[in-house]
Amino acid sequence: MNPRVTRPLTFRRRALGAALCFSATWSLTAVELAPVFTDHMVLQAHRAVPVWGTGTPGENVTVEFAGQRQTTTADTAGRWRVTLAPMKYAPDHAAQVLVARGNDEQRITDVLIGEVWLCAGASTMLQRPGGPSVPPLLGDGASPAREGFIRLLNVSTDVEGERPADRTWRIDSPETAGRFSALGHFFGSELHATAGAPIGLIELGRSRASVLSFLPWSDVANDPAVRDGLPSPATKHYEERERVYRNDVGWLAPFSVRGVLWAQGEEDVPYAAHYPRWFASMIRRWRADFERLDLPFLVVQSPGLRRGDNGPNESASADAVCKFREAQGRTAGEVPGVGLVVSVDLGTRFEADPKRMRELGARLAKAARGRVYGELVPGDRAPTRGEIKREPGRLLIEFNGADGGLVVQGATLRNFELVDAAGRIVPAEAELADARHVAVRIPYAFEVAGVRYGWADVFEATLRNAYGQPAAPFRAEIGRPPETAGPERWARLIEVFTQQDQLRAPPSDGVVFIGSSTIRGWLTLADDFPGHPVVNRGFGGSQASDSVHYFDAIVRPYRPRTIVFYAGENDLAMGREPTEVAASFAAFCEKTHAALPSTRIVFLAVKPSPRRWALQAQCAETNALVARYCAADTRRRFVDVATLLLDADGQPRRELFVDDGLHMNASGYHLWVRTLSPLLE
Question: What are the beta bridge partners of residue 98?
Fold first, then answer.
């Protein structure tokens, strides 16, 4: 129950009320916060927080919270909104009071400032704890239910499509947790145990829902790439289920959240070929609705499907399940800010074993800490296939995310297979070549055309990293040339950027970061540079010339005051000369100066990494050329962030890089932030 205090009208207002008491066109509406704002809620720390509601048209409304006071006026429909500035955690995480004041006053009590996560999806996300209460926390075993630092809000639409009877924030307890997502609760418990901050968890989903159920039907109907993937009998089906979006997402947005946990897919297994576009469309829509173009998504890669329940995919083949996992991986690889959490070793949908759901929650929490909060967390991701080299008698497969080194669980490394040109599949012998590579033996006279690992609905995950994370399943063709070698290979990703901007354009006069995977993987940009509207338009694997080619798509629309440019590593690794890299950057600058004469350009020095240390001399030459070029114009600035990554002997500081020896970890980025922050003021 939210207390409401009615403020007495002034004498003049009373007189006006008496004169108009018989008028059918005049009424005084109480100021009211949106229904998502209730007692015991959690508001997101360190990010802007929209607060909205209704009142009398033209009414002055004041919102007060945690020392902030924001005032606005209700529009002609009675709607109003303010935005609270980013807030730090309260001392000792003390509860606050949210007040909305107009013709009367509404008070929301016991409000915490913490971390808010949206736990969304279908059946896997909506499973309830198996016992009468949720098992104890991972970590130190303290109970968040007793502390009151975990709060739960369920906005899920039930099976019949009706709204839940009670959309109210609740303090975590065995009773309330028993009616909430077990996966979300395990995630929140682990996150709270490691961070200590208040945690707000919001469940949103529907059992056996397609990803299209989480989109407005207009998005589906108006996008041929999405609509054409639907079998015609399904059109009405998805149109009817739009209410999941309308009733749930529409009710909640634009409530401020740190990120989204996403566990969904069973309904869409038959449509793996279309799923990457469907899911990318949903991500764009949600990022627009929640007003965060960098909103992180942590995606649970589909576990094995259960059999014998007459579900929508009772007859789905193992090959279809594997292709769907592959489609989920494609989305994570192509859409910035999307991370994949592997669950293939946890059985089928986890109903029979709550410990497995708990393990998945712990993996999600570890991924959030490493990928969203920027902590240095060993084992925060699963090993994924990297480069494949063909050598005499074997394939040498590199794995990224091999934190602590690859290990074999069990006596032998199993579930590798080879494929020939005719599609014939044979089991393959495999062994660890070193801490990051697996060697797969090619049988005599076998014309290998492809290799795959874990290509089954359920399989024994024998390949892991030292922290227990199972390697992601994959398949790959051998010897096939790239489909395109020019900048056109990024066309699909650039299209994602464009569609995202059409839904909600980033503010102009901000800071645009562009370049290769070092920029694309900088997921904490907004938090690292508070007070600056930042836009991340990096795309992994790109070269300096690619940013020139796509200038009109990744720079011009935002009219930034500053561009932060990082590229060159991939150019040098592909055999380009330092002079070519410098020439590409010069071409980018000339294009910028012509279109945006007052925009500043900051070039971050090409970094020396352990994996590419052999290119150190070329990196130094490139940096020297660019530094000389930048010195000729005050709109250009060369920033030497490369030497920050070297030790006293001039060698790369291995502790600043993730396991692949190429990309920086949170500590490396922190050094860059300290150097770059003063230049953005």
Answer: 108
CA distance 311 to 102: 52
One DSSP character per residue, 231-300 reads -TTHHHHHHHTTHHIIIIIHHHTT---SEEEEE--GGGGGGTTTHHHHHHHHHHHHHHHTT-TT--EEEE
Helix 491-503, helix 275-289: angle, nearest 10 = 30
Alpha helices in 335-438 (DSSP H): 354-367
Six-digit token pair at 106?
């509404």
Dig out the tokens for 512 from the structure: 């645009």
CA pair distance 344, 385, nearest whole angstrom:
15
The one-letter amino acid code at 132 reads P
Query: Per-residue pLDDT tens for 478-503?
Result: 865 444 446 667 777 788 788 777 77
Burial of residue 385, with CB atoms counted within 10 A of its CB: 0-12 exposed, 13-18 middle, 19 or more buried? buried
Listed in sequence order, the residues at least 6 apart from 353 whose beta carbon sits closer than 8 Å to its beta carbon are 347
Q: Which residues are within 8 A (CB) of 10 and not within 5 positions of it... i.e. 6 or more apart?
A: none
Reported as a single tens digit per residue, the pLDDT across 324-333 is 999 999 888 8
CB 12 within 8 A of CB 41: no
Instruction: Say how far apart CA 72 and CA 58 lie, in whole Å.
Output: 9
Q: What is the DSSP string of 287-343?
A: HHHTT-TT--EEEE---PPP-SS--TTTT--HHHHHHHHHHHHHHHHHSTTEEEE--
pLDDT at residue 27 greater than cutoff 70: no
How does DSSP assign 627-657, residue by residue? HHHHTT-TTEEEE--SGGGB-TTS-B-GGGB
For the chain, the straight-line distance linking the first and the last C-alpha, in angstroms and rounded, comes to 45
Structure token pair of residue 513: 């970061």
CA 283 to chain centre: 9
The C-alpha atoms of residue 61 and residue 59 are separated, in whole angstroms, by 6
Three-state secondary structure call for residue 543 = coil
Strand 384-391 to strand 394-400: parallel, antiparallel, or no bridges (unpaired)?
Answer: antiparallel
Provide, rounded to the nearest whole percent, the portion of the chain with pLDDT above 70.
Answer: 85
What is the distance between the alpha carbons of residues 240 and 130, in angstroms, rounded to a whole number?
Answer: 32
pTM for the full model?
0.77
* Residues 6 or more apart whose Cβ sits within 8 Å of residue 184: 117, 119, 125, 201, 203, 261, 361
Nearest to 180 by CA among 357, 49, 39: 357
> Residue with structure tokens 């409304």?
61
Tens digits of residue pLDDT in 633-675? 999 999 999 999 999 999 999 889 877 788 888 889 999 999 9
Q: Is a pLDDT exceeding 50 seen at residue 18? A: no
Q: Where are the alpha helices (DSSP H) in 461-542?
A: 491-503, 517-520, 525-528
Strand order in the sheet with 600-604: 534-538, 511-515, 562-566, 600-604, 636-639
CA 462 distance to own-chain centroid: 28
CA distance 114 to 111: 10
* Token reading at 264: 């969904």
Ranges of beta strands (E only) in 104-242 are: 104-121, 150-154, 170-171, 199-205
The set of residues, in sequence order, having a beta carbon less than 8 Å from that of 371 and lying 6+ positions away, is: 296, 298, 339, 380, 381, 523
Cα torsion angle, 437, 441, 445, 448, sign:
negative
Residue in the structure block whose two tokens are 């009616």: 179
Q: How far apart are CA 350 and CA 331, in angstroms?
A: 24
Cα 507 to Cα 291: distance, rounded to the nearest angstrom: 11
pLDDT for 131: 43
